[in-house]
Structure formats: C-alpha cells, structure tokens
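Page 42, continued from yesterday. The earlier attempt failed because a stray header line got pasted into the input along with the sequence. Redoing it now with the clean sequence only.
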Amino acid sequence: MTTEATEILLIKNMTLICVLIWTLLCCCFTESRGQVTVTQPAAVTSALGDSVTIKCKTSQKVYGSVYLAWYQQRDGQPPKLLIYLSSTRESGISDRFSGSGSNSDFTLTISRVQAEDAAVYYCQSYHYINSQDVFTFGGGTRLDVGGDVRPTLTVLPPSSEEVQQGEATLTCLANKGFPSDWSLSWKVDDSSGSWEESGSPGVLQENGLYSWSSTLRLPADQWRKVGSVTCQATQGSQTPLSETLRRDQCSQS
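This time it went through. Structure tokens are written below.
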C-alpha cells in the first residue's frame, strides 16, 4: 500500500471513529479544541434547484493542506460523511456534493438543491500538533431549502384556572413558515415591556416548512388591566406580521 493510500485510510478511519464518539456524546463537540478553531456560518438558504455554498475556515492550516471533511446531519439522525480530504466524495454520495479549498479556507457546494438536502452541515479539520491527532468540528451550518413563506399566527389566551391562581400565560403559535429564522416577540397594549417571554427555535415539519412558539407570562393583576396583546413575527427584510388578542374576547376576568 502506498504512503498516500495509507494516509487516506488513516484519515477515514480516524474520522469514522470521531463520528462514533460524537454520536455517543449527542453530537456536542465544541467549535474549538484549544489550539484550533473552526468557523462556519450558522445558516444558509437555497431555493429548490439552485446551488448553495457553505464556507469553513480554520484558525490554522490543516494537516497536509487538505485534511478537512464535511458531514451532513438530518434531524434525528447521526452525521453522515460526505467529503474527506477537502474534495474526495465518500462512496455512495451524490455528485451534487462537491468540496474544494486548501490550507485554512474550504467550501462545500451543493448543486441542484433538493428538499432532502435540508440538514445541518459540519466541517471537521484534522491537525497534527505536538505529536497528537487533533480533530475539530465547526459549529454547523443549517441549510434551509425553499422560498420565503410567511407563517400563520395564532394567539392563545391564558386559562381561567391559571388566572385564578395569580398568573396568566399566553402562547403564540407560528405555523408553516420559511426559512427557519423567523422570530417572535410580544407587545402589551402596543408597547414593549419587561415581562417574561420565552420561545422555541424553528421546528422543521415534514412538508419542509417550520413552526415556532413563544409564551408571554404576566401576573394576573396586570393581565386584568390589559387591553390587548400582540404577537409579532419578523424575518430579515420581509414585512413583519402580527396577531392581536383583546382581553375582552376572553372568557376569564
């Protein structure tokens, strides 16, 4: 076996071992391993049929100039190796996936994007530092696939039982939107305030669209004085949308 073939076998074996360990740890590798940092964007968006690129940058040149791998992880599944040695496709991977780059700057390109490509993509570098193998994953880049879709909003009032106990929790549901970075916020009587808010990140549905939720908690005494509450959804440069609930529409006092 040639020296080059041995090196390729080593990096693939070490990479697969790393993936197994990563999966056992619930995919919680950090972006930095002390001496090496791997940086990639948090999210990118592509329409069906288009091409999209994901960048990856390492704080130091990788071993051999090309020892960088790319992985795809769909929701609820372990990561799958796509590319190793910067540009070599793993067996069985579609030629729509291609890698390029060297030293510290690398790119994953996905051509003719399909709905099934929606996933998180991780780059992984290999360095040999102080006689030690150092594998480092980036933080992951989520690929959203589709066109802009404004979600539908629903505001749910607190229950009468909860209000009688001194609290009022309202819930805003946003359904069937795209891409994943819509955010929800609240206004009470058309003003912002210091009340307690909490929200969930976008959840990908089987139809390729996302859903979100947010809650607003108020003391019952404050809720009884409220005229209306509004949930607002915003995303990038798109026009915000909102849904308002008037307290006099609710059955509880």
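Notes: Helices lie at 3-24, 160-164, 220-225.
Reminder to self: strip header lines before submitting.
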